[in-house]
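Long-time lurker, finally posting.

We've been working with Ionotropic glutamate receptor C-terminal domain-containing protein (Coptotermes formosanus) and I want a structural starting point before designing mutants. I don't trust myself to interpret raw outputs, so I'm hoping someone here can both generate the structure tokens and explain anything notable. Sequence follows.
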Amino acid sequence: MFLLAIFCTVCCTAQAILQNSAHEYPLMDGIKCISEELFPPGHSLVIILPLVEEHSTREEVGYLIEELHTSSRWPIIVVNATYRMKRNMTIEIRKHGSYIILVSGTCQPFTQRIAGFWEQLLGLSSGAMWQSWNPRARFVIPVMAPCTHYENTYVSQGILRFLWLYKVTNGLVVFQESSGHVNKRLQQNISDKTPSTYFSLHTWSAYENSQSCMFDTVDVPLKTFSVRNFSDIQYSGALKRQPGKNFHGCPVKVLVRECPFFLEPPHRVWNNDAGRYDFIYQKGLDIAILTVISESLNMPLVLLPTGYSCSDSMRDDVRSRLLAEELLNKEADIVTGGLVRAEISGYPFEVTHGYYNRRIAVYTPCAIKHPRWSRIFKIFSIELWLSIISFFILVIITVNRISDYGHRLHLNEHRVYGDVTSITVNMTAIALGVSVSTQPRTTPLRLFFLSWVCYCIGISTVFQAYLTSFLIDTGYKEPFNTVDQMLNSGMKLGVPTALAENMDTDYLNFFVICPNQDTCIDWAREYQNISIYLDDSFNDFLKSRGYWTDENNRPLFCELENGIILVSDSVMATLKGHPLLEYINDVIDHILEAGLPVKWKNWGLNHVKRSSNTSFSYTLGDTYVNINVTHLQSAFYMLLLGYTLAFLSFILEIIWCNLMSKTRYLTQICASHDAI
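Top reply, 14 upvotes:
Generated this for you. Predicted structure of Ionotropic glutamate receptor C-terminal domain-containing protein:
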């Protein structure tokens, strides 16, 4: 009996303590109930302490932390936004699951609480916690010690507006109100005569209709719910997230950067109503994807151009900083235009799923022609030239011996074929295809003479055919296959100035510094003495324009086997935690499933090829030799040289004949005088 009395006493005491606690801190009990209904278990819960701490506030916050810790549903992180660490903190990379931001302060002035809330948000999204900052998490903002001399909607609008600046849409502002305050605000009569405690929940749903596209005006409609019991919170509708992919015509601002193949330069169209030119973007892979996203989500596009293109030379950190500044200044939602994941990843951006694989590799000149005049001496090999010369000497000796043998047999052979000089002149004349001074008379020499004529005709035909072909097309040097071959040959790699600034001075000997990437490409194409690194998509674009082939339809640059520098994919970027990101990723996934990027790529390249009237085929059967006056220039020069030598020889022969005739005339006169 005594034990039963003690047990009853303990139970009554515990119940009284719980009732007193619930009655003493009803707002904290409501926050606990909301947390159990709203926050995902197992994920970290971050509690941000209020900036203004009083004795009552400290006890209330301690009660909340103790109750949440007792439930053992979440790992709890308590953050004091006013405390500044003097040493480096360990950066946490795991994203937070939910947030409770406790707001307190005096009622006068009104903006003090809003400014304090902004300071709390700034501490969460910067410093050592920026990697774990999760704008997509659920936020509950209890406003402690509410003010009764102005509407709570002013405070909630200011809080929700700051949350929207950080792209937070799952925010819930909680007030504790008396029944009289609720009746006055809702203009309703409550039958309860006893004073009761109510909770006022304020939130808003982004993109729910055309009036909630963004939180930038005071007239944004708020959703306000008033509940009395803790169990009514889950049925109030304040915790329900609006599903669906219809954004009700809310415009999406896209920051676009011009980039070949991905986003072509715009067309200027005159707008009569506005009295100005509007820039219309219609071509490019990114434009096609943005169009599908706009039609799928019912969001019209507002395209805002950036101040630079993807070909401008600058470091990735500088490019990322400039994009972030323009994205914030122009209040854009998405940035696109040939972005690479490695280029844009990092704070404050968050990238979409990749939709086009890209490969950056080293390209070396592969259409280098041999020098035209030096190629003439390479028509035959040295061994062949030595064999021809040896055979020519052997022919002279053979003719001389046949002639001597004929004289011994008393054959009537001309004396020209008995002199070595005359034999050399006649054999050379046959090799050049001209007539000889005297034909052989004996049968053995005639047979050998005929054999030598046939041999010279064959050699001359082959020589002239090769000579003509090399004069027209000198042929191509064998290109490099690996990076080691390129470096061992002394050829350097062209890099823009922005990339060379971060390189070690020991490696600068292997590079040629260009002002920008376009200049590197122009130098490589014009002089063909440097290699370049290039995106494969940009390489296909240059080929389709005919800019990357020579006059014989051969590619000017070829990719090295082990020259891959970076393999990445094209993405779009948003500010971290933007609510549109998951919807954009869903549309991109469906686009990839349908294989549309490959089809759009082929369509775009074919359009560029048709507009530039170039051929996009590089098989061996499609290559050709473009013969024109320029290619025949060396042949004409050689022909002119032959005519000049013939004319000089003719003049010299005339002069020689005149001199010889005068000499003979003088000799005859002298002889006649001597005879007299």
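Before you design anything, note these points.
Confidence is low (pLDDT under 50) at residues 1-22, 182-195.
Residues 83 and 563 are 51 Å apart (CA to CA).
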